Amino acid sequence: MRHLNAEMLSRILGQTVDVEIEPLNTGHISDVARVHIRPNSIHSKPVPGTLIYKAAPSGVSSSIENAFASQARERSFYLEIAPNLSIPTPKLWYASPVTDPRKWLLIEDVQPIEGLSLTEDQALNRLGEIHRHTVGRPITKILFANNISALYQQINLIPTEKINRLLEHSASVSPKLAAHMMHALQQKLVPETTANKALIHCDYRWDNLSPARDGTVFDWGDYCFGPISFDLSYFVMTSMGHLHPRDNLGWQRLFDAYSGKQQAETASLTLGIESEALKLEVKQLAALVAWTPTLLLLSNLALSPTQTLYWQKTLQTCSTWFAS
User: Fold this and answer.
1) Which residue stretches of the chain have pLDDT < 70?
2) Whose C-alpha in 30, 131, 214, 301 is 20 to 30 A from the C-alpha of 277?
């Protein structure tokens, strides 16, 4: 981050500022820092107090970045896609030149916000809004199959015996889950889905949501054009561990919030899939979602105890849903 200094920030912001860099450990596949900015003149124009710096990783997580090209993808999102979305996303302040190998970004810092939080209904409605506004519009050439291919490419770098050891955890709850995951990997299967396709985030969970502007979505390094059911399955598995697959009332509440049924004008918009059909796909896609915690837990990333427990619980939720 040596290039990220007061001189550079002063050029970007158009006035002289002092900066302090606070490295963050929240990013799994990016080098992330919070940049604290302070004008050094009483006559300065207003500047953001903080910005978020994101760059391609230089350490052990670089293999994941290489497989998914997450930094280049997120750069394209902020430059080409975000301006055409009505969904709240962080403001892009600066994108490094394309010749810069680190491909770093400076974006709005949208969390934490003291005293504010999102409800599950708000998070689900925001997800449904993303899908409703982009359904049937291939606004990116990156397809779901591209993401699956990158996933299998990354997994194949890990020794099979190491994968099998971790999958024993899934097999203890749902033997079918571990068997299905391995079969899909061996056959390079792309899941069959009937849900409509739209812009999907592919990492939609609480850690990538902010209460700013009633739900700002960030960390767009994995997006693609794919089945809306995957995003919903990912959110259920990573962020709704309390929801049991046989909780029909809980599922109906989820579907109502996601589909926007509380708003009459959006009740029949183009999600294109009924509640029970969507629930079935959410269950089936749990086996695909399960590869995310598996990959992270098997990697050499320096996960904190809290992060490790979080991804272990996610894997447990995937097992529960797939076994139901």
Assistant:
1) 1-2, 25-29, 43, 58-68, 261-271, 300-301
2) 214
DSSP-derived secondary structure for 198-265: EEE-S--SGGGEESGGG-EE---SS-EEEEHHHHHHHHHHHH-TT--TT-HHHHHHHHHHHHTTTSGG
Residue at 298: amino acid letter: L
- Domain span at residue 278 reads 120-323
162 inside domain: yes
What count of other Cβ atoms lies within 10 Å of the Cβ of residue 102? 15
The HSE-up count of residue 161 (CA atoms within 13 Å, CB side) is 0
* Nearest alpha-carbon partner for 297 in 284, 285, 309: 309
Quote the CA–CA distance of 10 and 320 in Å, as a whole number: 52
What letter represents residue 150's amino acid?
A
Phi first, then psi: what are they for 198, rounded to 5°?
-155, -175
Residue 265 has a pLDDT of 44
For residue range 208-253, what is the model confidence (pLDDT) as tens digits?
999 998 899 999 999 999 999 999 999 999 999 999 999 999 999 9
Same domain, 238 and 311: yes
Same domain, 210 and 311: yes
Q: Are residues 180 and 296 in the same domain?
A: yes
Q: What's the predicted TM-score (pTM) here?
A: 0.91
Please report whether residue 245 resides in a domain: yes
Query: Directed axis angle between helix 160-173 and helix 175-187, to 10°?
Result: 140
- Residue pointed to by tokens 């930094």: 71
3-state secondary structure of 52: strand
147-197 per-position pLDDT tens digit: 999 999 888 888 888 888 877 777 777 788 888 998 999 899 999 999 999
Q: Give the three-state DSSP class for 95.
A: strand
Tell me, what CATH number does 49's domain have? 3.30.200
Per-position b or e across 267-303, b if 16+ CB within 10 A of its CB: eebebbbebeebbebbbbbbbbbbbbbbbbbbbebeb
Query: Is the CB of residue 243 less than 8 Å from the CB of residue 236?
Result: yes
Rounded distance between C-alpha atoms, residue 272 and residue 275, angstroms: 10
